[in-house]
Design goal:
By secondary structure, the chain is α/β, with parallel strands linked by helices. It is built from eight helices and ten strands. Strands 1, 4, 5, 6, 7, 8, 9 and 10 form an eight-stranded mixed sheet that branches. The mean pLDDT is 92.
């Protein structure tokens, strides 16, 4: 069995959320179904086969850490988070143990992701040792989280600005990315705006 670690990206300043009228408080600590938004992703990762879980903080570091209080996570602070998503991805991957064969990359604003989805990605990755990545796909649209093989870590170190895992998947040769067909909204439901937050609350508070 492959050892797959998890990296939870929770460092961004939520500029789109604030521009849409979301206020100055971090969206990642907004309550959704009785707990902070970011805690949903963390708990899903901890209930899956992925380990350890590295949480990358940046903007509103103290609030994010408080929202995850009591969980078995390791924090990696990205002091350069304002430079874009790539800096947080680099920070998280740099904090992984050398034994990790891959990294499961989660976003802190996707509260519907489940342990079962994460484990499906890990199982698919184990079944295809030649693959560079695994990602969920809903009707042809790739979602999150994504699993990146260690072979991609050098490419992650070269990413810049707001480049993230999506660029690596798009640059991969045909057949190197395992697309896992999924149903439901778990892989695509994210919170980029106040409207998105309201939708997440409706979806998880049914």
């Amino acid at each position: 069995m492959s050892e797959v670690a998890a990296v939870l990206l929770a460092a961004g300043g939520a500029s789109r959320f604030k521009a849409a009228g979301g206020g100055d408080a971090s969206k990642l600590v907004a309550p959704v179904a009785g707990k902070p938004l970011v805690r949903h992703s963390a708990e899903a990762a901890l209930a899956s086969r992925a380990a350890p879980l590295i949480v990358v903080t940046g903007h509103d570091r103290a609030a994010v850490e408080a929202a995850l209080d009591g969980l078995e996570v390791r924090f990696a602070h990205n002091g350069g988070h304002a430079q874009g998503l790539a800096s947080s991805l680099r920070t998280g991957v740099a904090a992984l143990p050398a034994s990790a064969a891959g990294a499961l990359i989660l976003l802190g604003d996707m509260p519907a992701v489940t342990p079962a989805l994460i484990d499906r990605l890990i199982a698919a990755f184990e079944a295809r040792p030649d693959a560079l990545a695994a990602a969920p796909s809903l009707k042809g649209r790739r979602g999150n989280p994504v699993l990146l093989a260690r072979a991609l870590f050098p490419a992650i170190a070269r990413l810049d600005g707001d480049e993230g895992a999506r660029k690596l998947l798009n640059d991969a040769a045909p057949g190197q990315v395992i697309d896992i067909e999924v149903s439901g909204e778990a892989a695509i439901l994210d919170v980029d705006t106040p409207q998105g937050l309201a939708e997440a609350r409706r979806a998880l508070e049914k």
